UniProtKB/TrEMBL annotation:
PANTHER family: REGULATOR OF RPOS (PTHR48111), TRANSCRIPTIONAL REGULATORY PROTEIN CUTR (PTHR48111:SF36). This is Response regulator. SUPFAM superfamilies: CheY-like (SSF52172). CDD domains: trans_reg_C. It comes from Amycolatopsis pithecellobii. Residues 124-219 bind DNA.
Length: 222
């Protein structure tokens, strides 16, 4: 899942971003409304966590412009103004959900997860393919009953491959969905993550590399 955090309080923005990255999400940050509009115009996000009171273009206007353009991205409005009338105003602007500050981080993650599921075709919380069981709700992975300890990037890559159900997933798609805007398209990050992931999954190898095209999960039993 790819998330844009729009928050002018840099410490809070970093805290939210790092916490979401810890949930195997790809996260970009904008510190003002103008930058948010620019990023929303150049990248595809599943969820935008949008502070309402922003410098530059106000959060209300960011939401209004973005929603009027259509698209599948969901908006979670985040603000210190938690009165009922403020929540209603935010939702009427087109926000999908509203969370007041201060907030519980676990609730923020749960709301982002829920909005992310609404932004794309429904994916079961537990995925299974080629003897691998991936539980996205509890961040657990096992193969043939053996639990695996994966990094956030390894988990995200494996989730993308299993969700593709045997279809090819390009390195560029993985960079967009698992890393963030700072990922170098010429980096070997995907290749190295695949190398480590293969080692942890063990034999027989279930990740197939198709040169120049991408990666996919193959079931050795088929």
């Amino acid at each position: 899942m790819r998330v844009l955090v729009v928050e002018d309080e840099r410490t809070l923005a970093g805290y939210i971003a790092e916490g979401l990255r810890g949930q195997a999400m790809s996260v970009d940050i904008a510190y003002d409304g103008d930058t948010a509009i620019e990023k929303l115009g150049t990248a595809c996000y599943d969820v935008v966590v949008l502070d309402r009171d922003l410098p530059g273009t106000h959060g209300d206007e960011v939401c209004r412009r973005f929603v009027s353009g259509g698209g599948r991205t969901r908006v979670l409005m985040l603000t210190a103004m938690a009165a009922v009338r403020e929540r209603v105003a935010g939702l009427r602007l087109g926000a999908d959900d509203y969370l007041g500050k201060p907030f519980d981080f676990e609730e923020l993650v749960a709301r982002v997860d829920a909005l992310g599921r609404r932004s794309r075709p429904a994916t079961p919380p537990v995925l299974s393919l080629a003897g691998i069981v991936l539980d996205s709700a509890h961040r657990r992975v096992s193969r043939s009953g053996r639990y695996l300890s994966l990094t956030h990037k390894e988990f995200g890559v494996l989730a993308a491959l299993i969700a593709a159900a045997g279809a090819l997933v390009s390195a560029e798609e993985l960079l967009r969905s698992v890393w963030d805007e700072h990922a170098d398209p010429f980096t070997n990050a995907v290749r190295m993550t695949m190398f480590r992931l293969r080692a942890k999954l063990g034999k027989p190898d279930v990740i197939e590399t198709v040169p120049g095209a991408g990666y996919r999960i193959v079931d050795p039993a088929c």
